Amino acid sequence: EEFLKREALSGNLKSLETGESAYPPSNRTQWDNQRLNPLWNYLRRVTKSFEIWEPTQCVMAFPAVGSDIRSVAALMHNILVGADGRTFPRPNDFQGAPTRVDAPPTERLREILAERRKICMYDDNMHA
Question: How many angstroms separate the Cα of 77 from the Cα of each of 19, 38, 42?
């Protein structure tokens, strides 16, 4: 949501075909409980990196700054190896008990991952 507000609604994302600013479907930035195919199609039209992104297998991460890439990778590693003693998350773990939006990053990432074991990192090279 933050990325879409900051980058997409300000016109920073350009159509790969026309080079013109392209905006999310209906200028929507909040996609909770919505069909995600329109968002995924939009992202594929405005980014080079999403051609190989399979959303059911890989979680896309948009670090705020370059150094955050290591932090996100460390969070992911800790979840994958069960560093806190918990099993890997599944979607049913969160049904009826969603993670709070102000929860710590590890908890939010656990919910977002739910059965996906990869992170696709959106970095400066992909933004250029």
Answer: 37, 30, 29
User: Distance between CA atoms of 90 and 93, rounded to whole angstroms?
Assistant: 5
> Do residues 103 and 43 make contact, with C-beta atoms less than 8 angstroms apart?
no
Q: What span, in angstroms and rounded, lies between the C-alpha atoms of 47 and 62?
A: 13
Residue, of 126 and 60, whose pLDDT is higher: 60
Summarize pLDDT for 84-124 with one digit per residue, the tens: 999 999 989 999 999 999 999 899 999 998 888 888 887 76
Reported as type and span, the H/E element at residue 126 is helix 124-127
Rounded to whole angstroms, the Cα distance separating 41 from 30 reads 16
Cα–Cα nearest to 73, from 117, 119, 127: 119
φ, ψ (nearest 5 deg) of residue 121: -95, 125
Please tell me the chain's helix, strand, coil percentages from 3-state DSSP, rounded to the nearest 5.
40, 10, 50
49 contacts: CB under 8 Å, gap ≥ 6: 120, 122, 126
